[in-house]
Amino acid sequence: MKFLAFRVFFVFVLFSCETKRKDSSDVLARVSEKTLTINKAQKINMGKPLDKETIPGFVSDWVTGTILLNKGKEMGIHKDSLLLRKRDVYFNNLITSSFLYQSQHPKITVSNKEVLNYYNKNKRSFFRETDEVFLEHYFTENPALSKKIKSFFVLNKKTDINISDFLLESKTVKKGRSSDQFTSFIFGNKNEFIGPISSKNGHHFFKILNRYEKGSVKGLEMVYDEIFQRLHKKEEKNRSLFFLDSIKNTVNIYINPKYK
User: Fold this and answer.
1) I want to staple 153 with a disulfide (CB 3.0 to 4.6 A). Which of 22, 139, 193, 258 is the partner?
2) What is the pLDDT of residue 208?
3) What are the CB-based long-range contacts (under 8 Å, 24+) for 235-238?
4) Strands 132-140 and 167-174
5) Burial of 64 (0-12, 13-18, 19+ CB in 10 A)
6) DSSP SS3 for 196
7) Residue 134 contacts residue 172 (beta carbons within 8 Å)
8) 13 — phi, psi (to 5°)?
9) Which range among 18-22, 167-171, 175-179, 251-255 shows the weakest confidence by mean pLDDT?
């Protein structure tokens, strides 16, 4: 719904700022006197490419948004003072955020050494709070293929199947943190391979790649991205504060001490 509301807002801005330059691109849709062309659609879509798969949904949203916009105008909602103030606040926030983003160049960099230092100083925050398993989940609906998958893993027999075709996902499962119907099977034994486990959809297999006990420390490779984002956000915040302080010194500011 938020996405649709944004589209409606953008359609309103586009129509308000439309130039008289002729648009010769293909017409995608019309609503009364309003026309959506490929060029307009790309502007609304922030210049991102549109293809045969995304255009139908995009056009449907535009038609819906344009109809709602027209009906809202007929009721005079576009003249509502509260709505206009909200529009101004939203636009002003866009300006300030864009200004801050453009003023913080050159881009923030975080080195591997910084990540490693943070990891070493904050290892306690990376202890596992419960048992975990990193596994591969295989699945098939076919009982005959289920037997071949079992032979491949349990009996180590070569079969005429490509085992990667049956791989659904690789993921970490935390004990007691998931409503997954397979959790009891995964943590109920210490086998490297589990399955087949039958469900209403088919046959499931799990290959256990690693088991981690509660209280063990997550390796740097597992938390690298998380640390990187933490350091990046911290530096971003520090730069923003420094930049704000510097530009505040260029203007005269008065704040009533009564309201400090």
Assistant:
1) 193
2) 93
3) 235/108, 235/110, 236/104, 236/108
4) antiparallel
5) middle
6) strand
7) yes
8) -65, -40
9) 18-22
Q: Please give the full DSSP string across the chain, using - where no structure is assigned.
A: -HHHHHHHHHHHHHHHT--SS---SPEEEEETTEEEEHHHHHHHTTT----TTTHHHHHHHHHHHHHHHHHHHHTTGGG-HHHHHHHHHHHHHHHHHHHHHHHTPSPP---HHHHHHHHHHTGGGGB-SS-EEEEEEEEES-HHHHHHHHHHHHS----SS-GGGGEEEEEEEETTS---TTHHHHHS---SEEEEEE-SS-EEEEEEEEEE-TTPBPPHHHHHHHHHHHHHHHHHHHHHHHHHHHHHTTS-----GGG-
pLDDT tens digits along 70-100: 999 999 998 999 999 999 999 999 998 888 7
64's tokens: 């819906």
Distance set, CA 20 to CA 15, 28, 43, 72, 85 (Å)? 11, 19, 16, 25, 29
Percentage with pLDDT > 70 across the chain: 89
Domains of the chain: 2-102 (no CATH), 112-119+225-246 (no CATH), 128-212 (3.10.50.40)
CA angle 78, 82, 87 (to 5 degrees): 65
Residue 226 backbone phi and psi in degrees, to 5: -65, -45
Q: Are 134 and 209 in contact (CB under 8 A)?
A: yes
Phi, psi of 109 (to 5 degrees): -120, 145
